[in-house]
């Protein structure tokens, strides 16, 4: 049996039989000792990190304490600054209050002086005459004959009547001021300016441009783009004076009305179908009209409103020559110290042509228009005559023109008439008539107008 067990040969050619070597101890991939060493190293690293973090925390705490201290210092500094600024503004407010109080007290003290100045200025104008007449001669046109007028001095105009029946054919007319053809709008306004000041002082003022057609009335009032007339110059002066005289406790406000008077009928040139403008009354308490008034804050507004009104009026020359245009600036003044509230107005009137001759071939409509013009001018003359003659009854109601301007004619109001004259010989008759008209208005010895002519054509 033993032999049978050894009969198998397990050796295979090409293979080396495995020899059993001495058993060696098993070695672990990770030994316990290595793990311990690594654990100790990681603990040291962690301790180092913790130590570093502690240092950083300590530094952060120190920085935080420093920042808190800086914030506290800044808060204290800002509180101190705020306290100083508060005290400064408090002192400034107190100074401002004292200055305002002083200004109010000063204005209260000088207010009577300002009123006295206004009164004295008004008395000065009144002493010179509440109704004054200036005469202005326009230049000759290129196709006109030589001039028949001369200017001996600043208050006299001399007209060569060309009459051979008298020894001296030249006739003199005296006015408050006479302007030759060389005088521009600026020089004319120099003498008009006191009336603008009077209007701002609280007195009603009316300025009329009178004369025959083509004598320069409209040019005197409207002027041109390079030489402005009385409309623009008067309001610019009002605006400048108001700005210089306004204070923290007083103020001026302006509004304007514009209307046309044609055949005793009023046409409001600022009225529109859906207008929201406030209305104002003009005329006496017994007889007045209501007109739209538009507020104006500067000269540009005034110019814009006037241009719109002129466009609504139209360009029909035949109608413009027989209608009156009335532009009125309404002046409102308020003083919170004295409680003074004043209202006054400056009326600028471009009258219709004053020619009184009616040709036989004139149409009935033309005759009617001219008769209405003559009637209104005659009524104006009667009013001026009654005022300067100090009559008890003044016939304001004889014409719509004098009715509307009743509160600007007479009493404490001022009236200035600017007579415009044609210097050529072709208009000599009308020139003499206009000069006589205005001369009588200034002297107030006769009524203006020609009632015989009016009666004659009324009968016709």
TrEMBL record:
Pfam families: Kinesin. It comes from Salix udensis. Residues 130-444 form the Kinesin motor domain. ATP binds at residues 211-218. This is Kinesin-like protein. It comes from the Eukaryota. Belongs to the TRAFAC class myosin-kinesin ATPase superfamily. Kinesin family. KIN-14 subfamily. GO terms for molecular function: ATP binding; microtubule binding; microtubule motor activity. One of its GO terms (cellular component) is microtubule. Residues 43-77 form a coiled coil. Keywords: ATP-binding, Coiled coil, Microtubule, Motor protein, Nucleotide-binding. Signal peptide: none annotated. GO terms for biological process: chloroplast accumulation movement; chloroplast avoidance movement; microtubule-based movement; nuclear migration along microfilament.
């Amino acid at each position: 049996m033993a032999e049978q067990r050894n009969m198998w040969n397990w050796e295979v050619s090409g293979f080396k039989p495995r020899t059993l070597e001495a058993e060696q101890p098993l070695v672990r991939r990770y030994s316990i000792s290595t793990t311990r060493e690594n654990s100790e190293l990681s603990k040291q690293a962690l301790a180092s990190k913790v130590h570093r973090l502690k240092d950083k925390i300590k530094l952060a705490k120190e920085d935080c304490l420093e920042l808190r201290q800086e914030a506290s210092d800044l808060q204290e500094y800002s509180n101190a600054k705020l306290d100083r600024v508060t005290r400064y503004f408090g002192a400034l407010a107190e100074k401002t209050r004292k200055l305002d109080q002083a200004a109010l007290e000063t204005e209260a003290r000088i207010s009577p002086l300002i009123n006295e100045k206004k009164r004295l200025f008004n008395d000065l104008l009144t002493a010179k005459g509440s109704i004054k007449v200036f005469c202005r001669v326009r230049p000759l046109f290129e196709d006109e004959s030589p001039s028949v007028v001369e200017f001996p001095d600043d208050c006299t105009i001399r007209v060569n009547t060309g009459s051979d029946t008298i020894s001296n054919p030249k006739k003199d007319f005296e006015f408050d001021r006479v302007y030759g053809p060389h005088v521009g709008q600026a020089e004319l306004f120099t003498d008009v300016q006191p009336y603008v000041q009077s209007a701002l002082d609280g007195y009603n003022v009316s300025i009329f441009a009178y004369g025959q057609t083509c004598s320069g009335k409209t040019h005197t009032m409207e002027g041109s783009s390079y030489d402005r007339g009385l409309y623009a110059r008067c309001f610019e002066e009002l605006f400048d004076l108001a700005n210089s005289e306004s204070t923290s406790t007083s103020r001026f406000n302006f509004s304007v009305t514009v209307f046309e008077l044609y055949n005793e009928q009023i046409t409001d040139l600022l009225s529109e179908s859906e207008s929201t403008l406030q209305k104002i009354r003009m005329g006496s308490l017994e007889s007045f009209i209501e007109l739209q008034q538009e507020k104006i804050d500067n000269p540009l507004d005034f110019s814009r409103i006037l241009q719109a009104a002129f466009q609504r009026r139209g360009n029909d020359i035949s109608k413009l020559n027989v209608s009156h245009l009335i532009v009125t600036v309404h002046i409102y003044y308020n003083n919170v110290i004295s409680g003074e509230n004043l209202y006054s107005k400056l009326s600028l009137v471009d009258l219709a042509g004053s020619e009184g001759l009616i040709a036989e071939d004139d149409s009935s409509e033309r005759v009617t228009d001219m008769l209405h013009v003559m009637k209104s001018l005659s009524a104006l003359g009667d009013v001026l005559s009654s005022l300067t003659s100090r009559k008890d009854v003044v016939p304001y109601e004889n014409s719509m023109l004098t009715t509307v301007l009743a509160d600007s004619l007479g009493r404490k109001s001022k009236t200035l008439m600017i007579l415009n004259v044609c210097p050529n010989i072709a208009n000599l008759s009308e020139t003499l008539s206009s000069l006589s008209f205005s001369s009588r208005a200034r002297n107030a010895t006769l009524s203006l107008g020609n009632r015989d002519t009016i009666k004659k054509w009324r009968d016709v």
